[in-house]
């Protein structure tokens, strides 16, 4: 059975992961209506990943004899000035999630819950990847600048991230 402080912190992270899924789903919808099909596919994939992160936490909490709680979520933003602004928000959000995971790890160490600490190491590694990917995408967007042709190529190329990630994921199953 998890200590109440750990259960509460994990339930908070469940909400954050669920909100992350909603944020990326909202970004996918916005990108799709802007004609950015590649960006939309990327964001749909990100939304699915965040939901899987949430479910992994839910299963862990319940398997440890505690109770995962599904709570109300904040509505995500639905419009973005530009696709660059959208990706800047994505990067900031990933930094926020990393900070939240790090705080959760800190709590587990303080409570001497080494099992949960060990479980969370997957999330720590995942956030390193998520931040790096978001930063790389922002770097590419900054290289494009205001070039419309560059935007077209970027939208096409980001689909490769989706395809590559799907192939990699399927090979790990």
From TrEMBL:
**EC code:** 1.16.3.2
**PANTHER family of this UniProt entry?**
BACTERIAL NON-HEME FERRITIN, FERRITIN
Write out the catalysed reaction.
4 Fe(2+) + O2 + 6 H2O = 4 iron(III) oxide-hydroxide + 12 H(+)
Give start and end of each Ferritin-like diiron domain.
1-145
Q: What class of enzyme is it?
A: oxidoreductase
Task: Kindly list the places in or outside the cell where this protein is found, as annotated in its UniProt entry.
Answer: Cytoplasm
- Keywords for this entry? Cytoplasm, Iron, Iron storage, Metal-binding, Oxidoreductase
- Could you tell me which InterPro entries the record lists for this protein? Ferritin, Ferritin-like, Ferritin-like_diiron, Ferritin-like_SF, Ferritin_DPS_dom, Ferritin_prok
Q: Quote the SUPFAM superfamilies the UniProt record gives.
A: Ferritin-like (SSF47240)
Tell me the protein's name: Ferritin
Spell out the family assignment given in the record's similarity comment. Answer: Belongs to the ferritin family. Prokaryotic subfamily.
Tell whether Metal-binding is among the UniProt keywords.
yes
Q: Does the keyword Acyltransferase apply?
A: no
Describe the task this protein carries out: Iron-storage protein.
Q: Name one Pfam family in it.
A: Ferritin
């Amino acid at each position: 059975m998890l200590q109440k402080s750990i259960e509460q912190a994990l339930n908070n992270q469940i909400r954050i992961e669920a909100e992350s899924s909603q944020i990326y789903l909202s970004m996918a919808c916005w990108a799709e209506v802007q004609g950015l099909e590649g960006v939309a596919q990327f964001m749909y994939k990100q939304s699915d990943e965040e939901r899987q992160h949430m479910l992994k936490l839910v299963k862990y909490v319940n398997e440890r004899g505690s109770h995962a709680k599904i709570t109300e979520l904040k509505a995500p933003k639905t419009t973005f000035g530009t696709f660059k602004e959208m990706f800047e928000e994505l990067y900031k959000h990933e930094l926020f999630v990393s900070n939240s995971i790090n705080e959760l790890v800190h709590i587990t160490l303080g409570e001497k819950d080494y099992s949960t600490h060990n479980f969370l190491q997957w999330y720590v590694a995942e956030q390193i990847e998520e931040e790096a990917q978001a930063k790389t995408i922002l770097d590419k967007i900054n290289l494009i600048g205001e070039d419309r042709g560059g935007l077209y190529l970027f939208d096409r190329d980001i689909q490769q991230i989706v395809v590559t990630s799907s192939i990699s994921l399927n090979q790990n199953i």
